[in-house]
């Protein structure tokens, strides 16, 4: 294979190691990856093992050095805070080398704001910001991102959540301003009543309102 022109080899690497939607979840301190089909069952156990041509990376040192970047830049990574109630995003720097993080191009993050890990704006409490800010800081390290979609949701979008979002939503989304790399940056807000008129600084972020079955953003991601 090394006798083929480099451009041909790159085409092979992208085809063999890319083109998948990969769900990434932390389970009891270990990173687990699975293949997602049309984003289904993102809040449940991993259901399809990856079928990428990973043995290709063990062929020889030259092929590894040429091909490894395609595992990161040619796939679509999905994260969710709901599955297993474990953090994932903010711990990526512990699992991946910095240069691998910068090779990731596409991310979709399904952010359950009332999951055990974040527990934001529930029961009348002010947002607990430490873990929330850690996740945004981790996102800011993905400097190669071109596509970033974030879906914010609650288990149940109640009238109390609406009131609390009106009071705290702008502060919660202040970290958007440090995410300046993605040219395609979309945040789906947790309820249709949310305002999309917020300052995003130099970020290219745009806001969308949900289109869930109940009309308030409570439907599971599909």
TrEMBL record:
Source domain of life: Eukaryota
Source lineage: Eukaryota, Fungi, Dikarya, Ascomycota, Pezizomycotina
Protein name in UniProt: DUF7730 domain-containing protein
The DUF7730 domain, residue ranges: 1-210
InterPro entries for the chain: DUF7730
